[in-house]
Amino acid sequence: MGHRVFWVFVSAACLLSLPVYPLAGQTYPLTDEGGLGRVFDGIGGLSGGGATSRLLVNYAEPYRSQILDYLFKPNFGASLHILKVEIGGDAQTTDGTEPSHMHYENDENYFRGYEWWLMKEAKKRNPNITLIALPWAFPGWVGRGKNWPYDFPDVTAAYVVNWILGAKKYHDLDIQYIG
C-alpha cells in the first residue's frame, strides 16, 4: 500500500510538471478518476487580526442572532463550513489587540476575549463546522524578551498547545487545525 501511495505521489508530481498546450478548438478534460485531485473542504470565514468581529458580541438581539444564523447555519445564508480564529497574543495584529490566554508564563485564563464566544455560537448553529486557529502574535514572555518567539520552539509550542487544551477543557471546542 505504501508503495502505491509513493507511486501516485511521484506520478502526480510528474504530471503537474508537464506543460499542456491544447490545440485551438480542442477540449482538455479535467477529471479526478485517479483520485489525484484536491478535496473541497468547504467555505470558511476568518475572525482575526485583532477586532475584526469584536463588535458582533455587542449587537442587540435579534440582530446578533440573525447575523450569526446567516454566517453559520447550514443551507442558509453563507452557511460557512470553516471558522478560523486568532489565538490572542496581547499585541496589535491588524485592526486591534486580542487578549492572550497567558499574559505571563504562569497565568492561564481561557475566558479572555471573544473568540471563544464566536466559536461556540458557530458550533451551536453548525455542530460540524471545522475550527482552525493560529496566533498572529505572542506575548513577550514567549520569546524570552526577544521579538521572535520561534527561537524557543518548546515555549512557543507549549503556548499554542495550552490554548488548544483550554478550548476543549473550558469550552468543549475541538480545534481541528492549528497554524
UniProtKB/TrEMBL annotation:
* Location of the Glycosyl hydrolase family 59 catalytic domain: 40-179
Q: Where is the signal peptide?
A: 1-25
Q: Domain of life of the organism in this record? A: Eukaryota
Does Membrane count among this protein's keywords?
Answer: no
Q: Name the chemical reaction catalysed here.
A: beta-D-galactosyl-(1<->1)-sphing-4-enine + H2O = sphing-4-enine + D-galactose; a D-galactosylceramide + H2O = an N-acyl-sphingoid base + D-galactose
Keywords associated with the record = Lipid degradation, Lipid metabolism, Signal, Sphingolipid metabolism
In the Enzyme Commission scheme, what number(s) does this protein have? Answer: 3.2.1.46
Q: Does the keyword Lipid metabolism apply?
A: yes
The entry assigns this protein to a family as follows: Belongs to the glycosyl hydrolase 59 family.
Instruction: Indicate what this protein is called per its UniProt record.
Output: Galactocerebrosidase
The protein's organism comes out as: Xenotaenia resolanae
